[in-house]
Amino acid sequence: MNSENNGMHRGLKNRHIQMIALGGAIGTGLFYGSAQTIQLAGPAITLSYLIGGTVIFFIMRMLGEMSVDEPVSGSFSHFAYKYWGEFPGFLSGWNYWFNYIIVSMAELTAVGIYINYWWPEVPHWVSALVCLVVITLLNLIEVKMYGELEFWFAIIKVAAIVGMIVFGLLMIFTGIGLGGHAIGFDNLWVHGGFMPNGVWGLLLSLVIVMFSFGGIELIGITAGEADNPKKSIAQAINQVIWRILIFYVGALTVLMIIYPWNKVGLDGSPFVQIFSKMGISSAATILNIVVLTAALSVYNSGIYSNARMLYGLAQQGNAPKLFAKLNNKGVPVTSVLASSACTLVAVVLNYLLPGKVFMYLISVAILAAIINWAMIIIANLKFRAVKGADAAKLDFKVPLYPLSNYVCLGFLAMIIVLMLQIEDMKLSVYIMPLWLVILWIGFKLKQRYLPSNISNSIGK
Questions:
Q1: Which is nearest to 323 in space by CA: 97, 150, 145?
Q2: pLDDT of residue 425
Q3: Helix (H) or strand (E) holding 5
Q4: How confident is the model over 410-439, as pLDDT tens digits?
Q5: Cα gap 123→133, rounded to integer Å
């Protein structure tokens, strides 16, 4: 607790890290975004999450290999900077910050959708603004407060999903809550088959599935404030695969069994919709509380991680020095406030375009996440090249290196191609080169006007 990382306090305990990892794996992508995935894949949504989750697990192991070896604030931006070059470090840091700003906006939008389940007259922008103010204030206290908040948010989500799975299994086998009439497994194939839209529908569903996993790399960001990073980071990453199996594949399999996939709409969380339409209102209400908690949790993580990434960028000399200022609790206050202020755009968008914002934000967030993941994969290749023979001594090695790196890169390229087949997502793909050009211009301006701090921040 007393050891610090450039002034940042190591206030995150092992239990915090484990639950932050869970928080990154359970959010709006699962609770709300899965409605769109169900429309594309039907019951085969479980296969979609298994495929996407396997790729994410390998990418997380790549980040983990580097983070366990060098537990620092700034995570993969630091590794891209150190092992690849100045521009990759600049690009990965600012792109990650931008990505989580967009994800945070999507979570704020989802908050409005969930609140409308109880109070349909409340405008989305009002709910978003209240959430923004409360979470920002909590993040200004100290890192331990963030850890505690995320710990309890995650416990609520985990308990609810486990409870839903158990209740769903009882419905399937005993008919509990349905007058004793067991549901059985027919819903998996009687409404057009297990894969009603064929392999093409399954492939398209992978696009939205990958949004669900956006933010899971937050585990690496926590390394700079973990009190025992070599143990806790490795543990959290190794547990990613079973979390995906239980919380994504398990939960969605149960949903697809107990309710016809083709009756799930897009006007709310499928978890809430299904129990509500089955007449089990108490379960629907409880789950709506849970999905609201999930959105608040991910927004909380967004503010935390964005502030730390800005802090890391300022330490590198890639952002103005004011973002490297800490208060006496070790919190980068200016970075927290700046990141929170940027998410105010979501409040404005929900005011101007009520009901239309979520899918637009998803498409941008997916592309930004793909850039992040590609940077992690390539930085890991560079990291290994620098390590050379010493790579054999690494404590937390990537399985199937380097084959897994290249397979994951190919998978991400496929996702970008698939996005071009989805009407609402085409524009974001066309904009991506423009975003990279903007980052290049920003890098050149930084080189001219901001002093370099490579030696201090990277340790070369």
A1: 97
A2: 84
A3: strand 4-5
A4: 999 999 999 999 887 888 898 889 999 999
A5: 16
